Structure formats: C-alpha cells, structure tokens
Amino acid sequence: MRRTTIGLASLLLPTIVGAFAATGCGEDGVPGSDLADPEALCGPCGAVITGDVGISGNAKLDGFFAAVADLNKATVSINADFEANINELIAVFDVDVDADAEIGAKVDALVAAIEAEVSANVSGGVKVVYAGPKCEANVSVSVEAQASCEAKAGCDVDVDPGEVAVQCEGKCEGSCSGECTGGFKCDVSAGATCSGKCEGSCQVEGGAACNGTCRGNCNGTCSVQNSDGSCAGQCDGMCEGTCELAVAAECMGTCTGSCEVEAEADCEGEAPSCSGSCSGECSGGCTGSATPPSASANCEASADCQAQAKAQASANIECTPPRLELAFEFSAAAQGDLQAQASFSAKMTALQARGVAILQGFTKYQALITGEVEGEVVFDPSPIAVVSGELEAVVDAGVEGDLFADIPPGRIGCVIPAMAGSIDLLASITADATASLEAQATFASALTGGFSG
After folding, report:
1. What is the pTM of this model?
2. Residue-wise over 169-179: b if at least 16 C-beta within 10 A, else e?
3. What is the pLDDT of residues 218-255, one digit of tens each?
4. In a domain, 208, yes or no
5. What is the spatial distance between Cα 208 and Cα 195, in angstroms, rounded to a whole number?
6. Number of neighbours of residue 314 by Cβ within 10 angstroms
7. Residue 291 maps to a domain
8. Same domain flag for 203 and 262
9. Do 329 and 267 share a structural domain?
10. The domain containing residue 381 runs over which residues?
C-alpha cells in the first residue's frame, strides 16, 4: 500500500506543480502567491481521518474520501463501543483483570467469570434464544450520493425519496421492478395462516414444537416460568399458546409478522415484497452492493458518479439489533438464597442488554471487513474491498493523467495527501480488525452458545 502511495505522488508531482504555476491561490483565494507556502491554497485541505471530505472540490473524488471516512468512523465506533461494553460487564461481574490488559485477555477473563457465576447459581446452564442481526447496504446514502454528485456536475436532478430504487447485487428486501427469484415476503401483521415460514410469532392451539419463546402452556420442561405457572421461555416439549420465533420457521397456526413463501401467488392481501435476487431496480433493503440509477434524465456524469455512490453505500451498511433472551433455572443451592438470586438475575439482565449491543456491533464489523453475516457471505466483495477497489481505480486514473481534469486548480495540492491518507487509513482499518474481530468473535460465540457453568 505504501509503495502505491509513493509511486502515485512521484508520478503526479509534475502535474501538480504545473497546475499551481498556472493558477495558484494565496490568501483569500487570490491567484499568483508563493506556492511553497502550504497555506497558498483556496482554503485549508482538511484530512480524511477527521471527516473532512470536501477536499478536492470534485464530487466524484470527494465521494471516495467520504466512503473512507465513513468506514473509518464506523469501525472506530464499533471497537470503542465493544471495549466500553466489555469494561462495563467486567465491573458488573467483578472480574479481576488489569484495566490495561489487551481486549482479548479481558474477554477471556470475563467469559471465565460468567461461567463461574452460572456454575454457582444455575442448574442446567443458561439457555439462549437468539436471532441474529440482518445487515443491508444503505440505499438512501447511495441515492443521495449519486444525486449530489450529478447536481454538482450541472445536471438537472429530480429525485423522489419515496421512490428510492437501486440495482441490488444481492438479496432485495422490498419491491422489485423486474423478476424476483428466491422467494417473497407477505405482510401478515394482522395475523394469517402462513404456507411458508413465519417470522414473528405463531399462535398455536393444539400444541406444536416451538423454536423460540413459548408463552402459554408447555407440555414439557419450560426454562422460565411466570408466577402463575405459565411458560415464558424455551419449551422442550409441545407449546400451546404463542410461540415467538427466534428465526423464520414453519407455523402450524396463525402467523403474525411476515411470512416467507416461494411464489408470489402464495401471499394473501397486499402485494408481496421480493425477498430474493431482483433483475430490475430494488426499492427497500439490499443485502449486498447497491448501485443507484442516474438521478437525472440526461446526465453525462452519471456513470462516473456511480462508483463513489456505490462506495458510500457499502461503507454505510446498517444492521438491525439481534434478538437475545437468556433463560435459566436456579440450582437447589440458590433456591433458598434470595439475595444470590437477585444478584445473579441483575447480572444476567446486564449481560443480555450489553450482549445485544455487542452482537449487533460485531455483526456489522464482520460484515464490513469480511462481507459475512452470521457465517454467510452477504456482501461479495466485502464493503472494505469495494471501497479499496474503487479507490485503486481512482489511483489508476491519476497515473493516466485523468484525475485532475475536473478538480479546481487551487485544490489539486490537497489531493495527493488525501489519497495517501485514505490508503493508509484503509490499511490501518484492516490491520486493526484482526485482534478486535477475534476478541468479539470469542465473546459472541460464548454468549450465543449459552453458558454451561
């Protein structure tokens, strides 16, 4: 990466000097001042790492700087939140670990402390009801970036935010203007019979197996019971009442939420949304790379603007919170110790709340770096690979001499350090991800797998 930066700087230096010699800018943007003075630009350059993205004065290039800045902001925030949540749980579980210890060592110590608490207070371990987050490219960011770029290129932009649509290189979750292959979703928020898989809750009268939380009668052992004896946890037998599904599953009753089906004709009521790959434009969510159409009816800059819009959408993926419930039964030793029960329950409540935030952050982080969500490759290539690839294309354009064609001369001197900073920043994000992802994966695996004690 460093060789690319140095090579780019040496190749473009004559171009920069030539541009400055012709139209340098001094104080207040007055041409013809001392070009050796770093302040002899039309305003300060700014830095990508601090979020200054209007560096070149060219929307097609600044869009890439914005994507790198957004990617850096997201990863820094996730890592900081993860460590803060781990530190809070360390305090809750009174873990004996050095405050300056590496994050991996902190996670190992915390998991061991939780296991010890479970062993001392619980019979049969802590059981987990878990449904992972879903991550999508930010379609709105993609469309706004495309429209902004085209507008700055002088195109007559007219975008209706209510009709946002993109080419989705992955799974479309919404309406599709072309052929949808891979399934549909029916809205059954009012409750209906689901011929496919129900995502939400399933009302069963005669009793059925429940892959989630059973609320009602459990013909078997229930992990959590209400004071009236009804079940409010996992049921290892037949559930009669409402089954809150952890993942989409068959429902032998009335489904409330959404119903996943294979054919559009299997949906009742309102038109179904596509839940697979879309051959046309997709409006809604896009689990994969999102490329917006032109925001103007006739814009020569549309194709050039799409690359940076796609990069910004990839850097701004959004992940829904997971569903996490921790169920347990107190051991015989803890049954008679109300203080121990209250203390352990409070710790589990904190673990569940912090765990949701950690799992959501980890899923987004992994998606950004590897493209995987819950063990499945959803973004191919990964968002960081998309941003890096598009940035490499810009570097190639610079080497070929096309980079500065539309950049205000007074901003050309800002481009090389911004390019170098972006390349270094992407390398740093990748390098920092290894240890942090390993620590987050360790904690996520322990949390979703349950604690045996």
Report:
1. 0.82
2. bbbbbbbbeee
3. 999 888 888 888 998 889 899 999 999 888 899 988 99
4. yes
5. 16
6. 31
7. no
8. yes
9. no
10. 41-135+321-449
